[in-house]
């Protein structure tokens, strides 16, 4: 799997390269600023990119802007955005093109290497992966929603994991239940929230996130 | 003439927002001139009364040595100040802008102390000068206006006066060279009436404004007094800012020391131990590495919260507008944000504005039990400059009753704003809705 990495701090850039190489990725380019990232993504067309939000020259949300800009020209180019802070505002902007294949994660998630690499692979496969912090905030935001209150605790747990962008198989693994049970839960959730049930993981996640954003 | 002869002065605070712009008359035409006429009579009576007050004041100051003069002086000072305040109020209403009170705060203490402070206050002596000047200049401003009107009425009624008075008076209106012999002849004086009335009509407003200007020039604070007050205010706000800053730094230092630093130490320990155990106890090493990772996560989370408290990254990235949008998104109560900004503002202003809005919002969430909150931020440029003022309004439909002097929340915000010469006003009747208005002077960049 071909990957492009954008991170301005050399120490972290080297760390990311090492992690991905150890997990069988081919790092085609590792850049440290916004303009180079745009060039790297448009010339290499990688299977997935891992991008830090804050990049030179502006040291603001350069990485995020670059990614949104490139995805306008190459719709659905898989990108995982990393940040020291997750902002719902940025999550919303990343997903606004509804093309899926985006991830938005706290940098801390890299510490759990196995989980992080699995997330990057999911995004490469076209899924949306959201940081638990974003999802948690969305759920808090809708905490007074009468429809959400109708969910059982188990359904709530499934919804949370679903919103983070996990597949049915992954959710089943986390909750120690069969995949069939997860399917049943998710069908109930969609019925209760009045959403269109869908077998497509990515479409399902986008529907859930759109609902949570209210 | 609709004047009732009662002494009542206009009420209403000069700070109330509903006032005409300076120089714009609240009412036009005859009605307004008639009301001014009434006022000029009141002010003339006032000038006479003022002279009486002046006499009282001089008397009481001269008998201060006899002890009884002390309470008498205090009393007459209170009276003079009240009287001057009424005139300030009148001038403010005429000119459409408040006339500030120039008095220094009276110290707490015994009567002699207070008396000393009053006698040392230059404003006391300016009041005194004004009482003298007012009894003279008054005749040339509002007095003149009143006189013109009287002359007009007098000449209009001249034939009547001629008919009703004995043959010795009202026969030589223009001196001995011109004698009137009959009522018919006296009608020759009537045209002078409209001339005087026209003069009165055209000058009434100008003369009233002139008298307001005279009052303001004598009763408003001098430049020196204003500077002194400003310096005192700046010294106080600077002291507060320095204290707040020092407190913030102490808090950051403590948070770093007890949080992230301690966690990094424990992380180092776990790693050191793992290194030692690697050859003979891989099981324990695995456990230690998991602990080290947990420590790292916690340290990061703590640093994150700390940094957000210093300067939210989204504010650095997106400026005030984006930061407030992000703030509203993270809020459990539905919140709309409306901003009208020309672009990025200077960093200190941006940061101050963000934190005061965030605090006002937190306040509303904590106390108001609101269903909806609205944040409006607007930059109003001063004409012809790049500077302007930033107005921030946080309104909610909650239960109201927020007081700027009550809880610590709003007072803290007001203090933060004071460092930038900003202000806070709360409009929050019991039962709601609440609107917290904050303003910051700033230059747009």
Tell me about the largest β-sheet of chain B. Answer: 5 strands, mixed
Number of strands of chain A: 6
| SSE string of chain A, helices as H and strands as E | EHEHEHEHEHEHHHHHH
Structural class of chain B: alpha+beta
| Tally of helical segments of chain A | 11
Task: Estimate the strand proportion of chain B.
Answer: 5-15%
**Share of helical residues of chain A:** 40-55%
Number of strands of chain B: 5
Largest interface comes to: A-B, 21 and 20 residues
Structure description:
The complex is a heterodimer of chains A (214) and B (445). Chain A is of the alpha/beta class and 214 residues long. Chain A contains 11 helices and 6 strands. Chain A has a 6-stranded parallel sheet with strand order 2-1-3-4-5-6, sandwiched between helices. Chain A starts with a strand and ends with a helix. The mean pLDDT of chain A is 89. With 445 residues, chain B is an alpha+beta fold. Chain B is 62% helix and 9% strand. In chain B, strands 1-2-3-5-4 form a 5-stranded mixed sheet. In chain B, helix 1 crosses helix 5 (142-156) and helix 9 runs antiparallel to helix 10. The chains are: A alpha/beta (214), B alpha+beta (445). Chains A and B meet through helix 4 and helix 6 of A and helix 10 and helix 11 of B.
How do the strands and helices of this protein lay out in sequence?
The complex is a heterodimer of chains A (214) and B (445).
Chain A: E1 2-6, H1 10-22, E2 26-31, H2 34-44, E3 48-52, H3 62-73, E4 79-83, H4 88-95, E5 102-106, H5 113-124, E6 129-130, H6 132-141, H7 146-149, H8 153-163, H9 168-175, H10 179-193, H11 201-213
Parallel strand pairs in A: 1-2, 1-3, 3-4, 4-5, 5-6
Helix pairs in contact in A: 2-3, 8-10, 9-10
Chain B: H1 30-62, H2 69-95, H3 111-120, H4 122-140, H5 142-156, H6 158-164, H7 183-186, H8 192-219, H9 223-277, H10 282-310, H11 313-329, E1 335-340, H12 347-367, E2 373-381, E3 387-396, H13 408-418, E4 423-427, E5 434-443
Helix pairs in contact in B: 1-2, 1-4, 1-5, 1-8, 2-3, 2-8, 4-5, 4-8, 5-8, 9-10, 11-12, 12-13
